[in-house]
Amino acid sequence: MNRLGLLAAAGTVALVLSVAMPAQALIVFDPSNYVQNVLTAARALQQINNQIVSLQNQAQMLINQARNLANLPYSSLQQLQSSIQRTQQLLAQAQRIAYDVQQIDRAFSTSYAPVTGSQSTQMLVTNAQSRWQNSVAALQDALRVQAGVVGNLDTNRIQTSALVTSSQGASGALQATQAGNQILALQAQQLADLTAAVAAQGRAQSLEAAQRASAQDQGREQLRRFLTPGLGYQSSNVQMFHQ
Question: Considering only CA atoms, which of 62, 67, 59 is closest in space to residue 172?
Fold first, then answer.
């Protein structure tokens, strides 16, 4: 077979193969389409990443909101109420002339009233003794209230330490606010104790001053009676030893 015959045979075989192979079996690579597909996939992946970040931010926001709404696990309300009740009980146990306006008015219209010439000597002595007992009772009450206030200091110290620790370790705004409110309540309780101590001490001082004023008034009346002819001292013969 000569060279021309070989070329004709090869051409025939190629023609037959091209006719027998289906069109869909041919693979065609389009670079521009490939690049477009890659860019589309990259944009889709970026959108998914953005959505994941957004969900993470929303989850963190919900966690922060939950922390801000969480209640403070520590409460000093019961201890503060107990301290206030102890102080109130001591004030309520005030003896004789207590913290009552009507009772005070009655006492100053009787025992502490200005002395008159019509009052008997026995009445003057009785009133003086009553005033002295009022002063002693008020001093005792003041000391008892002061002792109660001092007894509350240790409780206040413990509560202050616990509240400051809770405030510093607060996980959210609500816990910090509640800790601050309880610290303010503790300060109010301390002011109440101070008010009670000042009131008790002031009561004792006022009754002591009233006693001194009444004693001076009574002393002037007794001196007047002593110096009044017929009412004062009458001399008489006294036999001291049997003869």
Answer: 67
Q: In this structure, which amino acid lies at residue 50?
A: N
Task: State how far the Cα of 225 lies from the Cα of 230, in Å rounded to an integer.
Answer: 9
Tokens of 142: 């003041």
Query: Residue 208's pLDDT is what?
Result: 94
For the segment 111-135, the average pLDDT, to the nearest whole number, is 92
Q: How far is CA 34 from CA 27, 31, 48, in A?
A: 14, 5, 21
Instruction: Look at residues 107, 94, 99 and name the one whose alpha carbon lies nearest to residue 148.
Output: 94
CB 97 within 8 A of CB 134: yes
Quickly tell me which residue has 């521009």 as its tokens: 32
Cβ-contact 144, 90 below 8 angstroms: yes
d(CA 105, CA 127): 15
Q: How far apart are CA 38 and CA 136, in angstroms?
A: 100
Query: How far is the C-alpha of 129 from the C-alpha of 117, rounded, in Å?
Result: 19
CB atoms near residue 14 (< 10 Å): 10
Answer whether residue 62 shows pLDDT above 80. Answer: no
As a whole number of angstroms, the distance between CA 111 and CA 128 comes to 7
Cα dihedral 230, 233, 237, 242 sign? positive
Measured CA distances, 228 to 87, 117, 120, 204 (Å): 52, 12, 15, 36
CA distance 226 to 153: 55
CA 117 to chain centre: 58
How far does the chain reach from its first CA to its final CA, in angstroms?
A: 199
